[in-house]
Amino acid sequence: MTRRGILAYGAYVPFHRLDRSEIAAVAGKGGGKGTRTVASYDEDTTTMAFAAARYLLGTLGPGYEAEQRPTGLSLWFATTTPAYADKTNATAVHAALELDPAVPAFDVNGSVRSAAGALRAGLGSGRHALLVAADLRSGLPGSAEEAGGGDAAAALLVGDPTEATPVIAALLGEGSATAEFLDRWRAPGEAHAKVWEERFGERRYLDLGQRAWDDALKNANLTPDQVDHVVVAGPHARAVKSFQRSIGPVLGPDQRRNEVDLDATVGFTGAAHPYLALAATLDEAEPDQVVALVVLADGADVTLFRTTEALVDRRMSRSVAAQVASGGSVSYGRYLAWRGLLPIDPPRRPEPARPSASAAGRSTSWKFAFVGSESDDGTVHLPPSPLDDQTRRMADRQGTIVTFTIDRLAYSPSPPVVFAVVDFDGGGRLPVELTDVDPADVHIGDRVGMTFRKLFTADGIHNYFWKARKAGD
Strand pairing partners for 174? Predict the structure, then answer.
């Protein structure tokens, strides 16, 4: 019998890291040990979701041309911090991935459990589902939410196996338990969540988690000692640790709960955390091992998988651990400014005009998917020329900086702006902004790749386009 399951996975960890020890010196309290990830000022949950999906599709083969993508695909985007309300955010990810218009795209937003719901729906549907989750986590300065949060994204491709996309982790069984109780809430329009007394939520989660755990094992016809890896994710830190302790005695001596210490290096990444923690585990798991994903959020959801030999060939080229280890630092003051918690003197230049919906609609493939054109003589045009019949996707090509300038007067939420002229491998030249870079570290001849970012926001409209970042970052 063919088993449905996970066909591929991907994860994205932002470049910047905030040392938690800096927080107390400014806020007067909070902080702690370790670091948390921080999305740049030009990133949001949409751009990070695309980055994770891009890593995932990159594992399916060289590039991700349309003929290499799985058929019958749907796209699901989970987040608690969407870039838009009253507008589907998944459509921007869809456009940046250059998916076929026949591929439907949906948001499943509002809570951490949305990601668990998308996984359950995707595994239960009759087609392939690309599940992406991303979150920006913050709190009031000096709060535990601020220090313990983190920004990241992750993606799973689930469905029935095909010859081109075999299952890397087959679904064995599921268990779920739901109850209405007040643990964490945030009114629409508010920036920060509130939390009820922790002992109350801890007790409820332990009961619900045990019920879902028992049901999943029963449905999979497994005993606890047959589970090799247990990943527990949820916004209630005490409940997560208590549940880990409660099942510890029934697990085998060689079983591990987490392959990467995400709490100490990344933080809790909201709706992205279940997929991110699972990705970190798949980075290290061996074939024919049972992996349990436990999500404690407004209930409990347990999903059991068995890894296959195909996992070895489908790992990301840059694991979660490698991405965590390759980041750069950001100061607490800059983090507060990026989050809008520390108003700073704006650039003394006119603010950008509102982006035009009609203009963006006429150039979707260029603006979102970074598609240029190629003339008959092989010349690559960026932006694409209306005279060319051939298109060329440039998003995955690297290039070389031939010259650059550091502009301290241009409008930017995080000056200075570094502009570079980039010659792309195989043809094409474009002046483009650099991101995630220290201006002192930019040199002519540096290699760069392209990344999907937010240029600015005006009148509530996010102007998405592409920037360059140093290759390997």
Answer: 303
Check if the beta carbon of residue 9 is closer than 8 Å to that of residue 154: yes
Count the Cβ atoms, other than its own, within 10 Å of residue 97: 26
Q: Looking at residue 205, what DSSP letter applies?
A: H
Using CB atoms within 10 A of its CB, is residue 2 exposed (0-12), middle (13-18) or buried (19+)? exposed
Q: What is the mean pLDDT of the chain?
A: 91
Q: How far is CA 192 from CA 32, 78, 112, 209, 377, in A?
A: 20, 18, 14, 26, 56
Cβ atoms within 10 Å, residue 61: 13
Q: Is 110 helix (H, G, I), strand (E, B) or coil?
A: coil
Query: Of all helices (H) and strands (E), which one includes residue 365?
Result: helix 364-367
Measure the N-to-C terminal CA separation of the chain; round to a whole number of Å. Answer: 42
What are the pLDDT digits (tens) for 225-261?
Answer: 999 999 999 999 999 999 999 988 777 666 554 445 7
Instruction: Return the structure tokens found at 463.
Output: 């102007």
Q: Dmax of the chain from CA atoms?
A: 70
342-367 tens-digit pLDDT: 888 777 778 888 888 998 888 999 99
Q: Is the dihedral of CA 51, 56, 60, 65 positive or negative?
A: negative
For the full predicted model, state whether its pTM sits above 0.90.
Answer: yes
Angle between helix axes 237-247 and 198-220 (nearest 10 degrees) is 40
Distance CA 74, CA 121 (A): 11
Tell me whether strands 152-159 and 128-135 are parallel, antiparallel or unpaired.
antiparallel
Q: Which residue has the higher pLDDT, 117 or 356?
A: 117
Q: What is the DSSP letter of 166?
A: -
Asked if 430 and 424 touch (Cβ cutoff 8 Å), the reply is yes
Show the tokens assigned to 372. 């240029």
CB 467, CB 451: distance < 8 Å = yes
Length of the chain, in residues: 473
Amino acid making up residue 343: P
> Taking Cα atoms as reference points, which of 419, 431, 417, 426 lies closest to residue 382?
431
Residue of 185, 152, 186 lying closest to 269 (CA atoms) = 152
Other CB atoms within 10 A of residue 439 CB: 15
Query: What amino acid is encoded at 438 in this protein?
Result: D
Closest CA to 57 of 171, 157, 166, 170: 157
Determine the average pLDDT of the residues in 95-112: 94
pLDDT tier, 70 (very low <50, low <70, confident <90, very high otherwise): low
Task: Tell which phi-psi region holds residue 232, choosing left (phi > 0), alpha (psi between -120 and 50) or beta.
Answer: beta
> Six-digit token pair at 348?
């003394």
Q: How far is CA 63 from CA 5, 68, 221, 381, 394, in A?
A: 23, 8, 39, 20, 11
